[in-house]
Amino acid sequence: xxxxxxxxxxxxxxxxxxxxxxxxxxxxxxxxxxxxxxxxxxxxxxxxxxxxxxxxxxxxxxxxxxxxxxxxxxxxxxxxxxxxxxxxxxxxxxxxxxxxxxxxxxxxxxxxxxxxxxxxxxxxxxxxxxxxxxxxxxxxxxxxxxxxxxxxxxxxxxxxxxxxxxxxxxxxxxxxxxxxxxxxxxxxxxxxxxxxxxxxxxxxxxxxxxxxxxxxxxxxxxxxxxxxxxxxxxxxxxxxxxxxxxxxxxxxxxxxxxxxxxxxxxxxxxxxxxxxxxxxxxxxxxxxxxxxxxxxxxxxxxxxxxxxxxxxxxxxxxxxxxxxxxxxxxxxxxxxxxxxxxxxxxxxxxxxxxxxxxxxxxxxxxxxxxxxxxxxxxxxxxxxxxxxxxxxxxxxxxxxxxxxxxxxxxxxxxxxxxxxxxxxxxxxxxxxxxxxxxxxxxxxxxxxxxxxxxxxxxxxxxxxxxxxxxxxxxxxxxxxxxxxxxxxxxxxxxxxxxxxxxxxxxxxxxxxxxxxxxxxxxxxxxxxxxxxxxxxxxxxxxxxxxxxxxxxxxxxxxxxxxxxxxxxxxxxxxxxxxxxxxxxxxxxxxxxxxxxxxxxxxxxxxxxxxxxxxxxxxxxxxxxxxxxxxxxxxxxxxxxxxxxxxxxxxxxxxxxxxxxxxxxxxxxxxxxxxxxxxxxxxxxxxxxxxxxxxxxxxxxxxxxxxxxxxxxxx
Length: 714
What we know:
Strand order of the largest sheet: 18-19-21-22-23-24-25-26
CATH topology of the largest domain: TIM Barrel
Structural class: alpha+beta
CATH architecture of the largest domain: Alpha-Beta Barrel
Number of helices: 29
Distance between the termini: 153 Å
Strand content: 15-25%
Number of strands: 26
Largest sheet: 8 strands, mixed, barrel
């Protein structure tokens, strides 16, 4: 066999055999053949000097699939790829082996079935004793698995390099154990502004703020990373241009080398400034009112909670809460729009800031509601003084694009005490005191005390009972005659509601209407009064008690005029009872005029187009200016009883005279309320007042008594 003969004449093979098998006879052909065929992991191929296959061991047969008989006499090119054959790789390998004594190559090899494997080959020349070339011995090993692993590793490294290079917002770099920067990614250059040649070799402390360098932060970071292998970092770092940014990331200690030496550290840094600022903005928005930039309700509660806790620890730390509400602000919003209303609120916020000290807390806690926490005061006198300053400051006009706007305030005061555990409790009491201030005429401050608490609790109970009053048929109607003054003829009735309370007895409107107006209960009460009064009026007509000239007056709250559905309610009740619309007069307050909105104006116009009359009740007691009557179409003015009572006084007489004159100039009917004496009647007739009502003629009576009055008159 050729391989056997070659091995016999090859010094390398003889040495291998002699070194490995010292007891084997070196000239035993059978042994050499056995040795060659058992090299199953290797393909052993004997080649002629020109590259012709001379012999082929069993390992080659197993690897390539050719039997010895199929390859002997053929060129070694049969195991090379077509590409390698075209480029002359087989001949080049033989030449290289002949020249250098050994040619090592890694390339794709081709099997009999056309499949490929990655082979590592060793090609050595074989010479005789005279040094003449007698052929080549070629050993080929299938290293596909290791090649693929190497390729995967190379691919992974390439992908990692590509990934690191593509991370534009991440700085990835490594530092030596002493902190010198060793490698620098493209992302690091983008984040910090240093190119690699500018920073590699410099200590990474150049990236820290001066304060952190002085405190030893760079060395501490490396020490912590060495001890814990990997640490999270978050701190402000410095760019090449001196600007700072908030950086988060990791610092990791690299594994020691084979000698146990520490190899340095890897750092990954991400610029999270934008995220940090976004979080700060979200937090700010959660704590600050966006319109006024004042603390909001949530933040105010936190300050009050701290004040309560401080007071419980040290009772000398007195504090108070002021609840501030703008009077008639809805009218500003409805008449001039949200933009002007927001401008007014902003101006009010700035004015309130001038009324508080640095240790106090001013907040906007809702719509037109503000609150102030007064810290470190000496007592209630300090709180009332602060409220007085605010009331004086708020009395000034606010300049807007539509002209000067006035936004007076009502203030409730609650003094801090040991009874408060929660901020909402003291704010609730300050709010309650503010409502008392409004009920007393607005534009004033009231301090909370237990009597107010009792009133609030009673009102709450009353509201709860009122919710069931209609269902339980507890409401009643009373009718007070409206008289034509010059002949004292009854020309109409004003329907007045009463409540037959199961425990408190018969309540007049003043006993429950103010509470109902603070809630939507007034809408249900108004609807009941309108329906019941019109039904009663229709019955009088059917029985022949009421003549065609008789009119029915019904009071309507401002909340009704803010409902688009109110017009439909009026139309339906008139239609259902077959009433002449001109027999119905709806009475509204001056507050309704002041708080009118585009919606209420539409409702008012639709009602008058229907033929129903509208009168202004209690004229002179509200805030309506005479000019405001030019902007709203009504049919009559009702002079408040307080002016009628004081007609003996000079100013009282002039006021009534002015109202009557104004009404007639505007083509309106003037009706005086609260007439109690013949002298008052005489004076009103002398002033030209048209109609009147009061106890001089008749107190409010039930429907049966009202019918008797009509019968007597007829």
